[in-house]
Write a structure and sequence with these properties.
The protein is an alpha+beta fold and 418 residues long. It contains 11 helices and 22 strands. The protein folds into 2 domains: 285 residues, 3-Layer(aba) Sandwich (Aminopeptidase); 122 residues, Alpha-Beta Plaits (2-Layer Sandwich), CATH 3.30.70. The protein is elongated.
Length: 418
């Protein structure tokens, strides 16, 4: 995830939750865990470099998953496995059987397999594609597990420590979609790590649809076959009709966006293309608005298809394929849910004003189903996410993000006092 959250708003924390978190933080085992996290600084940095240098594009996360599974085994999980879609799952059993909490970071990055992911180090700054988003979060998940083991913290609920696949791009949240399907263990609440500052808490899902639209025709020579219906021309018209109508619709109401991100097709300047395609991304805060701009897109495509078939002077008609390649549901959770209140209270404990926001993260899936879920930040300083020049900087307080994650997780799972 990169720059996919809105500005957010200040969260209101109920005093009782602040009191509860302050009391939990005084627990001797929690303090031992906090010290363990501090002591892991060098190890966490080394593991961040190691994991970053294992390429993990969507649908090709296997090598990174295997290494992350080993990390969770070494950290002390009760059992570790990789499910049928590639998610790494480590179970830490609770003592009271009171539900199950998912604690997640995503394995994949946006970069193709051939990308140079060698980490360059300048002082306390690491430079490499994917070093922040979301590799740093994977290190945090393992660090929290180690700290809980070293401090002998027992929880009431089971905890699943997760490295999920397919969060980015055409991965379309496939890992977390599987985790919330009937084929996986039930999850009662969900905490993802994906973002920057520890005060930013995503509790609202930004919905999106993505399409690959392909116009097809016979193709031919630009002079000798002139008069054939041209897929490139039809694509251009479709884009024009879509952007003109979508612009009008999105100027009012709930925030809604649209973007033609990629186009392609054709073989040469003097050939009528046999195929022309585009990939389109549309997003909205609310499902109704997303469905409306979706209908505008489809109507525009059909208008262009009919128009250019009517214009042809010879040959067969154009056809069009409309394939949905992404579907992220939207949704909102009540700010008064215990998980959200606990997370905001934990931010307050660390001296940060909580800010609740809308984002496009793994939490979209549980949020859309009304399951308590938050996405929290990775800490440190980072920049240029999704770019080859991505960097992550240890600002000497990045360990606090791990302590924040641990305290939030234990407050949700419920501590069992020795």
């Amino acid at each position: 995830m990169a720059q996919e959250e809105d500005a957010g708003k200040s969260g209101k924390v109920e005093p009782q939750y602040i009191k509860d978190i302050e009391q939990l933080a005084k627990n001797k085992q929690i303090q031992v865990a906090f010290q363990s996290i501090l002591a892991q600084n060098k190890r966490n940095r080394d593991e961040l470099i190691m994991l970053t240098e294992i390429p993990a594009p969507p649908f090709m996360e296997e090598k990174r998953a295997a290494r992350f599974a080993t990390m969770l085994k070494e950290a002390g999980a009760d059992s570790v496995w990789i499910d049928k879609v590639g998610n790494v799952i480590a179970l830490r059993k609770g003592k009271k059987g009171k539900g199950r909490v998912g604690f997640d970071a995503h394995l994949d990055t946006v970069f193709p397999l051939e990308t140079n992911v060698k980490v360059k180090i300048k002082g306390d700054t690491l430079f490499a594609p994917g070093v922040g988003d979301d590799t740093r979060a994977l290190v945090m998940v393992a660090s929290v597990l180690r700290a809980m083991e070293e401090a002998k913290i027992e929880t009431q609920s089971d905890i699943l420590f997760i490295g999920s696949v397919g969060e980015e791009g055409l991965g379309d949240l496939r890992g977390v979609k599987h985790l919330f399907s009937d084929q996986s263990p039930r999850l009662d609440s969900w905490i993802s790590i994906d973002g920057g500052d520890i005060g930013r808490i995503s509790t609202m899902g930004l919905g999106s649809y993505r399409y690959r639209i392909t116009f097809k025709g016979p193709g031919g020579h630009s002079w000798g076959a002139f008069g054939l219906a041209n897929p490139q021309h039809a694509l251009g018209s479709a884009i024009h009709y879509f952007t003109k109508s979508a612009d009008k619709y999105t100027r009012s109401g709930a925030r809604t966006s649209y973007n033609v991100g990629r186009i392609g097709g054709g073989t040469s300047v003097n050939s009528i293309a046999f195929e022309s395609w585009m990939e389109v991304d549309m997003r909205s805060e609310f499902p109704g608005n997303l469905n409306k701009v979706d209908s505008i897109l489809k109507a525009s495509v059909q208008q262009a298809l009919q128009e250019h078939n009517a214009m042809k002077r010879m040959g067969p008609a154009l056809t069009v394929d409309i394939v949905k390649i992404g579907d992220r549901p939207s949704g909102e959770l009540d700010e008064n849910l215990p998980l959200i209140q606990r997370t905001m209270a934990t931010a307050s404990y660390f001296g940060v004003s909580p800010n609740v926001s809308r984002g496009s993260t793994n939490s979209n899936i549980p949020i859309s189903r009304g399951i308590p879920a938050v996405t929290i930040g990775r800490g440190g300083k980072s920049g240029n996410a999704h770019a080859l020049s991505e960097w992550w900087y240890d600002d000497k307080e990045s360990y606090k993000a791990i302590q924040f994650a641990l305290l939030t997780l234990v407050s949700e799972a419920g501590i069992v006092n020795p």
